[in-house]
Specification:
With about 400 residues, the chain is α+β, with helices and mostly antiparallel strands. It is built from twelve helices and ten strands. It folds into three domains: about 10-120, Butyryl-Coa Dehydrogenase, subunit A, domain 1; about 125-235, Beta Barrel (Butyryl-CoA Dehydrogenase, subunit A, domain 2), CATH 2.40.110.10; about 240-380, Butyryl-CoA Dehydrogenase, subunit A, domain 3, CATH 1.20.140.10. A hairpin with a 2-residue loop joins β9 and β10.
């Protein structure tokens, strides 16, 4: 029997995230966006609220909530601004959950525990100046030198890059396999700020998510102990894909929050704005745009909830997560575009949030695997050209 009701714990997390976003961010996020300034207080307050430890077991400093609760938190945070959701996507989804699944006990104690407690902020770095969705196209490499690896390369468009304490880096460790684009030659490494040769910078002039930090990471012969390699040598690509499954899930859940924000803003404005002697909410074509937002919100929420249910059951969910991300991000961009249309000329003004929603919505169709990558993935599943295979590590069931 299908039960669409949320548990008490899930509702409490939703309430927590909603109240945090409204209390701590709603009043200042517009200014942060306009000045392209990341507010570090958000991190401190999210840590204090336990949001940075969502879905991490209590024995590692987390809250122990399930993955549906994580999705609900992402929806509520993105309702206020995408930059808030990005923090959870990167810190929890891309890094912490990957450490939970792939790390040794020693690595979890050293890296995961302070992350779950919010004492340290973490990110994942795959993308480079000439390689995004084409992960095998990255150039960053690492060679062995005794019991250490020496990493060299550059990462680009990395969320939280210039404020993170911990970095999960994907690099080639087999140059011959790199020449053949054989992804089994990649490995994953855990780095921390302050290491010699590691430097970061902030990227300015972004179209959207201006209140968030996006930057670059330079690796100039950074020496990393063998003990700080995540997984076995050659498992870097698998680890990266695993991480993206978690990140895409949070992006999909967040997109529903953006759709709902566009819907609420459009409904409110349409009821007070008049043209041709009546509120624009009475014009059929305006109703059509609002109807599309309402329908897409319900559809997108069902898609990410299905993916979350699979995660809670400990089952592989690459196909479902990809579809939720593909559909959710497309629907969010459409909702934001229609919200601007409903607001007319005011939609171009920062006086109304829909201008910011529109700019924020576009990025999600590019990061975490571009729109085109997800379309190809879904087509391959439909054509029987791809089937999920068991992986060495699966996401642990919530405790």
């Amino acid at each position: 029997m299908i039960d669409f009701s949320f548990s008490e714990d899930q509702l409490l997390v939703r309430k927590l995230a909603r109240e945090f976003a409204n209390r701590e961010a709603a009043a200042t996020i517009k200014e942060c966006d306009e000045t392209a300034c990341f507010n570090r207080d958000f991190l401190t307050k999210m840590a204090a609220a336990g949001l940075l430890g969502l879905s991490i077991p209590p024995r590692y400093g987390g809250t122990g909530n399930d993955y549906i609760a994580l999705g609900l938190a992402c929806e509520e945070l993105e309702y206020v601004d995408t930059s808030l959701r990005v923090i959870l996507s990167v810190h929890v989804g891309l890094n912490s959950l990957t450490l939970l699944a792939w790390g040794t006990e020693e690595q979890k104690q050293r890296w995961l525990v302070p992350q779950a407690k919010g004492e340290k902020v973490a990110t994942l770095a795959i993308t480079e100046p000439s390689a995004g969705s084409d992960v095998a196209g990255i150039q960053t490499h690492a060679h062995r030198d005794g019991t250490e690896y020496v990493l060299a390369g550059e990462k680009m468009w990395i969320s939280l890059a210039d404020i993170a304490d911990h970095f999960l880096i994907i690099a080639w460790t087999d140059i011959e396999k790199k020449k053949r684009r054989d992804h089994t030659g990649m490995s994953a490494f855990l780095l921390e700020r302050g290491m010699k040769g590691l430097s970061t910078a902030t990227i300015h002039g972004k179209l959207g998510v201006r209140a968030g930090n996006t930057g670059s990471i330079a690796l100039d012969d950074v020496r990393v102990p063998e003990a700080d390699r995540l997984g076995f040598e050659g498992e870097g690509f698998k680890i990266a894909m695993f991480a993206l499954d978690q990140g895409r899930y949070t992006v999909a859940a967040g997109s529903t929050g953006l759709i709902r924000a566009c819907l609420d803003a459009s409904v409110e404005y349409a009821q007070v704005r008049t043209t041709f002697g009546k509120p624009i909410a009475e014009h059929q074509l305006v109703k059509e745009m609002i109807a599309d937002m309402a329908g897409d919100y319900e559809t997108c929420r069902l898609l990410w909830l299905k993916a979350g249910w699979l995660k809670n059951a400990g089952r592989r969910n690459t196909r479902e997560t990809s579809l939720a991300k593909l559909y959710g991000c497309a629907a969010a961009e459409k909702a934001a575009s229609n919200a601007v249309q409903v607001h007319g000329a005011y939609g171009f003004s920062s006086e109304y949030n829909v201008e910011r929603f529109y700019r924020n919505a576009k990025g999600a169709q590019i990061y975490e695997g571009s729109r085109e990558i997800h379309k190809l993935l879904q087509a391959d599943y439909a054509l029987g050209l791809r089937a999920d295979k068991p992986v060495r590590c699966t996401l642990p069931r919530p405790e």
